[in-house]
Amino acid sequence: MRFYPILAVALAVTACSPSPDAGIASNSASTANAAAPVAANRSAPAVPVKAQPIRLSQKTDALEFDYRIPAAAAAIPDLANMLRDRAEKGKASILKERADYDKDMPADAPRYPFSFSTDWSVAADLPQLLVLESEGYQFTGGAHGMPIYQTLYWDKVQNHEIPLDALFTHRAKALATVHPAFCAQLDRQRAKKRNVAVADLKKDAGPVDDFTACPAFGDGIEVVFTHPVGGKFGRIDFIVPPYVAGPYAEGDYRVELPIPKAMIPYIAKRYRPSFPGTGG
């Protein structure tokens, strides 16, 4: 996973708006034979136009900014506008931090550009839900920047964003069905990075150590339903950022698990058609 600023290019915004695909009827008199193609054109379905990804970027001495929106999101006007707005607000916030930083630093102190990047990608595109996940980076001074992860669930039927909690009747009980498997896989990944079994580390550090204990599912861990199969989610991924399950040097952890049958009763009725083992 990356831990360096994504270099942005000159300010550029790329988007594509669908153009109408309708036949043009003549106003002049025509024969019945000549009018037939016009009628056919009127009844023919519109040819869908694929939207293009959007990229907002800017590079100055003060800021390296890069924000990417995939085509699937760009094709939904309300979603694309929402992400554009978040991009502009994020950029404005970083620029304000940079201005405050410049005021506090001595005039002869070295200056490094602050960074703000977000790269959204499609985790799942189902008939009912579009799931986006992003990997980003933010640097506002200090020893190093921080990777930033986000997940977005968009209800394509109601055309609005929904929080993760909306997928469940009881979020804690739903996620509890995968927590043991999550902990087991996380420990295997930590052992591989550290060249020592986590169980051996716990003997010395104790279970209260954040870097040996298994973290609870909180705000720091992203929950991503993904890997669609047959119009339904196939797996559930957990993105664990630095400092949650290990030191910064270890980077992030990504745990991928199948969706257990035990979770389905805790899925909200409205969204059960998007999950395995259900009708719809």
Automatic annotation (TrEMBL):
Segments forming domain Deacetylase PdaC: 57-146
Pfam families in alphabetical order: PdaC
Gene3D superfamilies xref list: Fervidobacterium nodosum Rt17-B1 like
Membrane-spanning intervals of the chain: none
InterPro entries for the chain: PdaC
Keywords assigned: Signal
Signal sequence extent: 1-22
Name of the protein this chain belongs to: Deacetylase PdaC domain-containing protein
Source taxonomy: Bacteria, Pseudomonadati, Pseudomonadota, Alphaproteobacteria, Sphingomonadales
